[in-house]
Design brief:
With 396 residues, the protein is an alpha/beta fold. Helix content is 36%, strand content 14%. It has one domain: Glycosidases (TIM Barrel).
Length: 396
């Protein structure tokens, strides 16, 4: 670490200690021509600058609006919103779901959301990617984007290849090892599927567009160059890519985007359920050190998640449900706290916690019986808010 990074760690130590204390005590609360560059709509939303959180209490705006607005150089304090469209829902229903989501994530002091939405393929060797009735249409997506931006939230659009057809072909298949029989056809199909959402991103001035996630088997393909070039002809904002946790620390992605984030699920086989937050922090740093021990301002933790179950540190990226696992709420909360501390210490561009589903209602959360991957209504929700507040304490 450089001396500036070390001093940054010291400055943030007190805030992180406060996070841990809140979580342990349970008081953290759950409740096609050249185009002009896109100015992120959320970043240009008029709002007074909050007082420095290290010296004053956060400036609370009206409910349902952002407390710490994002702007260039500020961290993305984010929640991944997974949106599988319900074809029977009316637009009015979608607006209500979106407003409920916005009220909830802003109550956590988030300033950013990523709208992750499913796109589909017929199997691991298929040559096409398509939007189904479960993929939100651009018109419906526009409804949610505008509501989020009106509340001051920075928005990322993030297509995510659904794995249902892949798993049906065999349990070892996932989006990271697909092998289209005709890669040129696959890339052409993928570009066509992305196009209307890129046009929407330009129209609505969204902050970022994530061109792909976890396509490990395809990452070295030179066809990405043409796909990215085509995307830039439609959208002039920030283009990103989400790397999987394992290859992220082995080699840099050869996709010419503006930022590479990571879906961060590094297993820590040597840590038991009683591991302390400092031990978890050391584990996270040991994983990142495989690539570099230096700051990572040009990257972000694009997904942080873990099940609230015993043994989660050995498999943070896989989970079952309450009936097939032993619930452990502290494991999940401590994982979130440690990940946040490391992202701050490494001066990363931000962190997004996986996930909130658009149709869910936080008021219906059942900490003891919900799926273990859910953190809504659990102590981990308090860890999320404490993460955002502690980061804002030195960034604003």
């Amino acid at each position: 670490m450089t001396s500036s990074t070390s001093s940054g760690r010291l400055r943030r130590a007190a805030a992180v200690a406060a996070v841990a204390a809140l979580v342990v005590s349970g008081t953290a609360g759950c409740s096609t021509g050249a185009r002009a560059p896109v100015a992120d709509a959320a970043a240009t939303t008029p709002a007074s600058t909050p007082s420095h959180a290290a010296d004053h209490a956060p400036v609370r705006r009206r409910p349902g609006t952002v407390t710490f607005p994002w702007s260039s150089g500020k961290p993305q304090l984010g929640v991944q919103i997974y949106w599988k469209n319900a074809p029977g829902d009316s637009d009015s229903a979608v607006r209500l779901q979106a407003q409920r989501m916005i009220t909830y994530v802003t109550s956590l002091d988030a300033n950013s959301i990523a709208l992750s939405f499913p796109v589909y393929t017929a199997g691991p060797y298929a040559n096409s990617v398509y939007a189904s009735s479960y993929t939100p249409t651009p018109a419906r997506m526009d409804l949610v984007i505008r509501l989020a931006q009106a509340a001051g939230l920075r928005v990322t659009l993030r297509p995510l290849l659904d794995e249902t057809s892949l798993v049906a072909a065999g349990p070892a298949y996932w989006r990271g090892n697909i092998e289209p029989s005709d890669r040129s056809a696959w890339f052409a199909s993928y570009a066509r599927m992305l196009a209307p959402y890129l046009v929407l991103a330009q129209q609505d001035r969204v902050g970022s567009f994530d061109l792909g996630s976890e396509f490990t088997s395809l990452q070295g393909d030179q066809r990405w160059d043409a796909l990215v070039s085509g995307a830039r002809s439609l959208y002039s904002g920030q283009l990103t890519y989400s790397d999987n946790w394992d290859v992220y620390v082995q080699q840099r992605v050869g996709i010419p985007v503006d930022m590479v984030g990571v879906d961060a699920y590094p297993p820590m086989d040597d840590l038991g359920d009683n591991a302390t937050i400092p031990q978890l922090v050391a584990g996270w740093n040991s994983w990142l050190d495989k690539w570099t021990s230096r700051p990572l301002p040009d990257s972000l933790l694009n997904e942080v998640g873990a099940p609230a179950e015993k043994g989660a540190y050995q498999h943070p990226g896989s989970w079952g449900d309450y009936n097939s696992s032993t619930l452990d709420l502290a494991v999940q909360a401590n994982w979130f706290t440690a990940a946040c501390q490391v992202a701050q210490d490494r001066d990363m561009a931000g962190v997004y916690f996986w996930r909130y589903t658009l149709q869910q209602n936080p008021a219906d959360a059942d900490p003891l019986h919900d799926r273990t991957d859910s953190w809504v209504g659990r102590p981990a929700a308090g860890a999320v808010r404490s993460c955002f507040d502690s980061w804002a304490a030195w960034a604003y």
